[in-house]
Amino acid sequence: MKVWIKYLLGLVLGVAAAFILPRGNAVCLEVVTFLTELFIRIGRYLVIPLIFTSAIISINKLRSSKLLWKTAGLTFLIVVISSLILTTVGLISILIVKLPRIPITVDVATEIYHLDVKSLILSLFPYSGFEALREGSFLLVCLVFAFIIGWESASEEIAFKPVFALADSLSNLFYNIANFVTEIMAVLSIAIVCYWTINFRTIIEPGIYTSMIIMFAVDFVIVAGIIYPLIIHFVCHDPHPYKVLYASLAPLILSFFSGDSNIVIPLANRHCRESLGIRRRCRGFTYPIFSIFARGGSALVSTISFILIWCSYSSLSIPVTDILWIFGISFGLSFLLGGIPSGGAFILLTIICDRYAKGFETSFLLLKPASLVICSFAALFDTLTAMVGSYIVAVKTKMVEHHSITHFI
Predict the structure, then answer these.
(1) Which residue among 163, 281, 323, 325 has the highest number of C-beta atoms inside a 10 angstrom radius?
(2) What whole-number distance in Å separates Cα of residue 72 and Cα of residue 64?
(3) If you average pLDDT over residues 232-260, what whole number do you get?
(4) What rounded mean pLDDT belongs to the chain?
């Protein structure tokens, strides 16, 4: 059975369970919440070991083949372009379609999140290099350590051959274990989907956020069904661009209902290899970079969300200068969300509201009840971007072995 079918069955069973379980039962909700947290932890358990060992091999081979800087350049170029495209799509959609206003609330904010750039930079270099493997959220910390090891091990291939062999063996080991975890996650996702559906029913019933959710969905269809396939077709000269979307089905399902950009990495890594044929030397470096920096989905949903809040507070048109400011801050701050694998989109919204001021400091509370859906769509966009970006880089650097769609897992 195809992997995406297993996750689709998990989706169906999770939704069914949400309707079967007694609604409003505190015990049931507590159990489902506990299982969801437990299963998300299981899903993220091997992310750091897998990324760390694979990145060492990737950097080593890229440097040895003199493809490191070309691969890195293409990766970061696509990160910027994809974020620019997604932010633009979000801005255009909310300016063209006027959504119904959200009723003003009188809730009091307890805390406003702030991105501490200095702390992020300092966290990249803990007092001990081995502490880099303890950071489970900000993947760039372990990636920097892996980069140093991979780079230096390629300088003296004979002297450091045992290091390479050990990393290679561990990478294959963690990949095989991760494959087993991704199989059982199809079953464990039932609880994750159930939890999401229970909360979604609460969000959707008042009808306040329905139009916003529809806009998110339409934007995703436009990006996944039109924009990204066209880019793949013309950039990669690929006559079958939708195969990337097909290979991304299982990762998209898991990322949407978990809202977590890290939990999906083992599953996405498996599809990059066994479906799209991306070689380890490429995906071991590119996919983590996309996962960390390519957060254009968060910028898209935050842009839509903030302008919806603005329109809910005022019936006047938004000044052009303010529109450009919203676009710029959503686009710019999205690159700093790497340390927030879950919930980054809503945190970005709170920062935008706080920075905009003018009485909007706590206006994000209008959309706080819908934060689950906002973050789910952000993760959906970001996961697709990482899959598409990794494929484009692999094709342009000739580090891909094309497989027939019939052989996709």
Answers:
(1) 281
(2) 14
(3) 92
(4) 89
Q: Which of 231, 212, 138, 186 is nearest to 9 (CA)?
A: 186
Maximum Cα–Cα distance across the chain: 70
Residues β-bridged to residue 260: 342
Identify the band that residue 379 occupies on the pLDDT scale cut at 50, 70 and 90: very high
The DSSP 8-state label assigned to residue 357 in this structure reads -
Q: Check: CB of residue 332 under 8 Å from CB of residue 303.
A: no
Q: Amino acid identity of 272?
A: C
Give the model confidence (pLDDT) of 25-53 as tens digits. 788 888 888 999 999 888 888 899 999 99
Q: Is 383 helix (H, G, I), strand (E, B) or coil?
A: helix
Q: How far apart are CA 35 and CA 392, in angstroms?
A: 37
Give CA separation, 135 vs 10, 132, 258, 281, 284, in Å: 30, 6, 20, 23, 18
The β-bridge partners of 208 are: none
In a 3-state reduction of DSSP, which class is residue 110? coil
Q: What is the mean pLDDT of residues 87-107?
A: 86
Enter the tokens of residue 34. Answer: 């506990």
Burial of 19 per CB tally in 10 Å (0-12, 13-18, 19+): exposed
Cα 335 from Cα 79, distance rounded (Å): 9
Q: What angle do CA 137, 267, 135 make, to 5 degrees?
A: 15
Residues 6+ apart with CB under 8 A from 409: 2, 3, 270, 271, 274, 275
CA atoms lying within 13 Å on the CB side of residue 261: 36
Q: Which residues of 106-124 are buried (b: 16+ CB within 10 A; e: fewer)?
A: eeeeeeebeeeeeeeeebe
Rounded Cα distance, 399 and 389, in Å: 13
Place of tokens 């890290």: 262
The span from the CA of 279 to the CA of 264, in Å, is 19
**Is residue 260 classed as helix, strand or coil in its secondary structure?**
strand
Whether the per-residue pLDDT at 334 is higher than 60: the answer is yes
